[in-house]
Every structure is written in C-alpha cells, then in structure tokens.
Amino acid sequence: MASLVINDTPDGHRMLALSGRLDATSVSSIWDRAHRALTDAPDRPVTVDAADVEYCDGAGIALLVDLASHPRRAPVEVVRMRAAVATLYNQFDLANLEHDLDPPAPRLPVVEEVGSATYGLGRDLRNMVTFVGSLTSALVYAIVHPRSVRWKDVFRICERVGADGLPIVALISFLLGLILAFQSAVPMKRFGAEIFVADLLGLSVLRELGPLMTAILLAGRSGAAFAAEIGTMTVNQEVDALTTMGLDPVRFLVTPRIIAALLMTPLLTLFANLVALLGGALTMQTFSIPLVTFFHELDSAVDLTDFLAGWVKSFVFAFLIAAVGCLRGLQTSAGASAVGDSATRAVVSGIILLVIVDGIFAVAYFVLDI
Amino acid sequence: MPTGDPVITVQDLAVGYDDRAILEHVSFDVREGEVFVILGGSGSGKSTLLKHMIGLYPPISGHVLIQGRDITEADGDERRDILRGVGVMYQSGALFGSMTLAENVRLPLEEYTMLPRAAIDLIARMKLELVGLDQFSGHLPSEISGGMQKRAAIARAMALDPPILFLDEPSAGLDPITSAELDALIRRLQQTLGVTFVIVTHELASIYAIADRVIMLDKRTRGIAAEGDPRKLRDDSDNPWVRQFFRREATAETA
User: Fold this and answer.
1) Which domains does chain A have, with CATH numbers?
2) DSSP of A171-227, one letter per residue?
3) Which of A21, A286, B69, B200 could form a disulfide linkage to A55, CB 3.0–4.6 angstroms apart?
4) How many beta-carbon pairs below 8 A join chains A and B?
C-alpha cells in the first residue's frame, strides 16, 4: 500500500512524505491528494520525501516526475530517494517530457488541400492511362506470341473465376428469375396477361440482368480477389522481384487474369441466363403456365439479336472487372490495411464502371436500333 | 581483398520519396568480385539506396552505372538487359507464394532462355543444392523457415548466374547460427563463382565476417560518413560516431 502524509512546517514549507509501495495499483489512491497538495498552496515550496518508498514501478516514478515538474510558482523538490528509485527517476529528463504526446495533425490551408487532391487525381489518371497502354501492349504481345502466355496460370485462374464462381452465380440467377417472374405475374394475372411474363423475363434477363448481375457478382468475387492477391504480392515485394528480374508485372500478372476473365465471364453469363429463365419458368408453373407454353412464348418474344446484345456486354464487363482489380492490386501501398483498401477500391470502382458502361451500351443500342 | 575494375559506379546520387531527399551527393564504386556492404542505422536510407541502385525508383538526381550502363536513364529493353546482369534478394525473400521453390528458381530460366525442360530442371536443382535446399524443391515458401526462404531467394537470384547480386538485409530476423551459415554461403559464392555482392545490413557480426569494403550512411548528414575496411574503420576512423557504431557503443546522442 502507498501512503501520503502532508505536513506544513513553521518555516512555510510543505512536506509530502511518501511511503510503502508506489505501483500501478496503489498510486491511484494518492495521486489526486498529492496533486491537490501542490495546487492548494502554489506559493509554498514543497519537498517530497521519498525515503520510505520501498518499491517503485513506472506508475510510481510517473507520480514523482509529475510532482517535480508541476507548473507552480514555488519549487518542488524530490529528496531522499533510495538508490534503486533514484536510478529509475534519473533516467528521465524532465524537459523532454513536456512535449505534446498527441500533437494535432497539421492542417493544410483549403487551397493547398484542393491543389493536393487535384494533383492526386491527375496522378491517378496518368497511372490509369499508363496502365491501359501497357495492358494493351501486353495483350497484343500475347495474341502475337501465344506461347509467351503463362497458360498454367490462366487455367488456374479460370477454375477460380469460372468453376468456383458457378454455384453463387447459379443461386443468385435462379432467385432473380424466380422473384422477377413472381413479382410481375401477380399484377399481370389480374389482367389475364401472366403469359407475357415470359416476354418480360426473356428480354430483361438476356439483354440486361443476366450479364450485369453476373458481372457485379464477379466484381465482388474475382475483382476483389485479383486486387488482394496482387496487392499482397506488392506488399511482399514480389512485384519488385519481378521487375528486377526484368519481367513485366503487367504481362506476368495481369494478362493471365484478363484472359481468364474474358474466357469465363461470357460462359458464366450464358449459364446465368439459362438458370434465371428456368427459375422464372418454374414460378410460372404455379400460375398454371406449363413449361412448354412458357418457352414457346419466350421463343416468340426474344431473338438472337437480344441474346447477342446482352452477351457482347459480358466480354466488355469481364475486361473491366479484371483490369480494375489488377490495377488496384498494383497500386497497393505499404501496410497491412493497404490490401483491404485495394480490394474495396477494386469492387467499388469496378461496379461503378460496370453501371456506367452498361448505360453507354443502352444508349448505343437505342441509337443503333438494336 | 579484390581490386578489380568498378562494376557499379554511383555518381552524385540524391534519392528519396516525393522529392524529399533522404540521401544527397552519394558517390562510390563497387569493384568486381568484392563483397560490398552498405550499412547505417535504422532510417539512414540503406534500403532506399539499394532500390534506387537497381532502378526500382528514379533518383532525384545523379546516375548509377551498372557494368558501364546507366540504369537511371535506361528504359524498356535496355533496362531489362541491364537487369539481366543482376540478381536481387529482398528483405522478405519475396519468393512467389503460389510456386514451389523449384518453380521459383525455374522461372527466370523459363522466361529468359530457350533451354530444354530437362536442362532447366537440372540447373534449378543445382542452384537449390548450392544453397542446401535440394531436398525442399517441392515445398511452397510458406512451408519452410525464414532462413530457408532467404537461401531459396538467393538461389532464384542466381538462376541466370548474374555477375552481381544485391542482398537486402540477408540476416535480418535470423538466429545467429542461421545467419552465420548464410554468411558462409555468401563467402563461398563469392570465392567460387566470383560474384560481386552488394549487401545492405546493420548486423556487425556479418559485416566483419564477409565485407571487403563498407560505406556507412549517416542520416544526420544525409550522406556517406565513412568508407573502407570495416576493421580499420572500427580502429582508426577519424569520425567518433563511426568508431562507436562499429564498437556497438551507445552515446546519449546515438542511444
């Protein structure tokens, strides 16, 4: 236990006699009282007598240092410390302990903040243009020299993007078809028009929802995985190692991923279309529309152009998802949170780009009357 | 001590990040066949200097000539050509995590040579044997210890038999015995293959064991505080801070 006895001497001094064990548990009981003894009489010189302190840990030394450096008019002196306590006490320079432990972060003037943000945006844009340039050159090289492509990596990534992604794409597409058919069949039944659900489903799934939903799922799944994988390689200096081996990281890491995404996304889109239509057809059975009638109506409502209009988009979406994922991975900075940031940025910018490009497709198809 | 011609020449180099200089007016030569050590305290810019020497980052100013060719000015194929003459072992090893040790060592051979598969396999096996890891060729980097990863990284860096090897903190995080084994390996490679080593480290035991010549970086002056034989610097340097560093003495200023 720590104890504190306060005595005022006739010559105007105040004596603070500390005794016992000054450790993290016991010091708290006397800290406030010791402090008050100093602030109550700011003009009275204080002597802290530590002769009876048996043991002192970091908290005890902190109390002594705090008392000795107390800002007041009259001086404070710590005396009669035992050798062991004095050794601990003397390792601190009181002047060094005055700096602010949590200095406020420097704030830039608004103009400088705007300038710095603009510069960052410009640098991002330049990096993106450089990346698109090297990517194009790497893809052209891969087409001209197919043997230079690391096909083993391509097939490994194909398996992860395609085969491993199949269950989630199937589940979401099936539910999408099921819900869409059900939600439209209920109001349409009132007009006896539930057969036209097949037309609605066919057009919306083949032209829009199939490719877009597959792409969004892949952006969340594979785009993030690409960014995290390449990001971890960047943090572990593996990308530096490639560069110093004279191997182009874009050709080595990005090309196989782009090729795998270009091969797998259209296939997954085909599958998603089929499963969504199947989900819709099954729902319509509960509305007394047999499968054969549903598919007959579907056949009369959509043609090859509708299918191709949607399917072509899946190639562009595949390129976007893979390229953005890889770019974010290569842009990963240092630190443990950087990989997470890259994965997040890959998903967010990937989905934004998908929606923008889908909008451009919609306008282009309208203008071209497709 | 080897007294060959300079294979690396650093001329008035200023390096740093975002135009904030960490080192300025740095000039030195690395001679053929020597073990050249860059040392200095934490934050003195050792690894930064190394990264600029191998052209990972552009310097603020100055030049680095590797075998007479300026890597700071080189681009594309020329840069790749210069880098074929060097091997780099990074602090973390930087082995490709999805590849086995054999695949890691085979990679540069597959990318740069037209050798038949059997020859590539044999060379990879020889390089792994050289660093004592032939029994672990089928292991992934995550399945072996830190010291083994560093040895495997040396094997990969040597795959194409570059005349110059850069090693970034080879003994960091290793126990003294493993560290001594790595030092012995470096000495053996230098003596048997005549490889020039540029090593970044602050492990004094390693420096005395392997270094022919050192430069010592000082973050206070942002430059080279001393250059020469480490034992001579320890005993005779004019700079008291350098002597203290080599004798592992702490002062109020350096502690």
Assistant:
1) 2-98 (3.30.750.24), 138-368 (no CATH)
2) HHHHHHHHHHHHHHHHHHHTTT-GGGHHHHHHHHIIIIIHHHHHHHHHIIIIIHHHH
3) A21
4) 43
